[in-house]
Amino acid sequence: MEIKKILVANRGEIALRIIRACHELGIRTVAVYSTVDELSLHVRFADEAVCIGPPSSRDSYLNIPRIISAAEITNSDAIHPGYGFLAENAEFAQVCTDNEFLFIGPTAEIIEAMGNKAAARETMKKADVQIIPGSDGIVETVKKAKIRADEIGYPVILKASSGGGGKGMRIVRDESSLEKAYVTAKNEAEKAFDNGDLYLEKFVENPRHIEIQVAADQFGNVIHLGERECSIQRRHQKLIEESPSPIVDDKLRKKMGEMAIRGAKAINYEGLGTVEFLYGDNGEFYFMEMNTRIQVEHPVTEMVVGKDLVKMQIKLHTGETFPEYFYRMKLRGHAIECRINAEDPEKNFIPSPGLIKSFHVPGGTGVRVDTHVYAGYHIPSHYDSLIAKLIVHADDRLTAINRMQRALEETIIEGPKTTIPFHQAIVRDKKFREGEFSTNFIETFIFSPNTE
Ligand code: MV4
């Protein structure tokens, strides 16, 4: 199938990232934008741009009819959803297909199957993928949750089946607090996702979040591209990601990789996907969720495999298969990404939108910056606060950390407060440098800005 024009249904750095991949493939691009994004670089660098509405996401980047109309009037062949917004919306994928636009992502059926987290657990269990001990599907009542929690033992965690990433989640340390946790988690889930279904898992203490990047063609071939270590997160937002993980050796990578491939094959997966695992301090790892989109942190994988994942993703959806050497892809060196947000780390990460007065990006060997902003750009307050991803690559982890320190030092952003000082504090930290951390790292981390 040949594709001449792709509409990018997103904004910010990822929209620009996708436009770059398209242009290298000789594919024309259409940007869509809300009225506050007119001066963003994704609009500037696309071949065409269509304003799809006012700032509110609901009326622009989340508005399916407006995006489909933009694809129609520009005669686009395909739609790339990026991450966030409509990327994992099964209805959107189906509407694209029904209107004869190629959706750059898996089918609506696969998105739905993995979007229902309780059902995804069951599906993966059947595929012989190790899941966290827990409920079979949803727990319909407090009583049923109590019975299952007794069987697997406390602590347990209640999670929203439509959730993912924190909302509608409660850790339960003993039977006496289960009922209240169940009710509050259910209410939260109903409010946030319009679906109060909950499932139960054994709570894994001090886990690491490690995910495997997979890629599948349309002929049943699936490869994995190594892991990403994503344990450095705050309130379920990742701050730093790296590849490889400091604790994954060749043997563990092979086991995790094979398990991820088995899971992807079991659901006839198509395109790029990520299988998330929790790694416990007992050395065991368990399937947690599968993400059916290109992820924010994909560049760390790109740096160690030396491949453009967005180009690969587009090619897979146009029916290309993997060249033979992809099955014995070597991972080279170590990559780290810091997400730079317009937030004040000294004021509980309160968003800090507004005018960027000056903007200097670092450079030199092994340094990459993915951003849609520039000096004179106004960060709108309506969307997430990611303004740039700083990615470094080096031969080994310590060299990469030192390179990240150097690159952070060179980065100058005047105007908004940013998370740069926070990143500088993390990369100075002894435990971080030793690779000894879990998802609890930030909770116990004491931030003191360097005043030198
Ligand atoms: C868990 C877990 C421990 N055991 N699941 C899921 C979404 C991700 N953002 C965090 N998640 C977790 N799932 C089991 N079975 C620990 C986390 C977790 C977490 C949970 C509650 C509050 C804060 C947390 C911080 C990091 C990880």
The general outline is globular
User: What is the mean predicted local confidence, pLDDT?
Assistant: 97
C-alpha Rg, in Å?
22 Å
Low-confidence stretches: none
User: How many structural domains can be distinguished in the coordinates?
Assistant: 3
Provide the list of bound ligands, each named once. ligand MV4
Enumerate how many helices there are, as a single number: 14
Top-tier CATH class of the largest domain:
Alpha Beta
Q: How would you write the strand order of the largest sheet?
A: 13-12-9-10-11-14-21-19
Explain briefly what this protein structure is.
With 452 residues, the chain is of the alpha+beta class.
Structure characterization notes:
The protein is an alpha+beta fold and 452 residues long. It has 3 domains: 5-104, Rossmann fold (3-Layer(aba) Sandwich); 133-202, 2-Layer Sandwich (Dna Ligase, domain 1); 208-444, D-amino Acid Aminotransferase, Chain A, domain 1, CATH 3.30.470. Helix content is 32%, strand content 26%. The chain has helices at 12-24, 41-45, 64-73, 90-98, 108-115, 117-126, 142-152, 178-193, 250-266, 298-305, 309-317, 397-410, 420-428, 430-434, and strands at 5-8, 28-34, 48-53, 78-80, 102-103, 156-160, 170-172, 198-202, 208-216, 222-234, 237-243, 271-279, 285-291, 334-341, 343-344, 350-351, 354-355, 358-360, 367-371, 378-379, 386-394, 412-414. The longest helix is centred in the middle third of the chain and has 17 residues, at 250-266. The protein binds ligand MV4. Ligand MV4 binds next to β8.
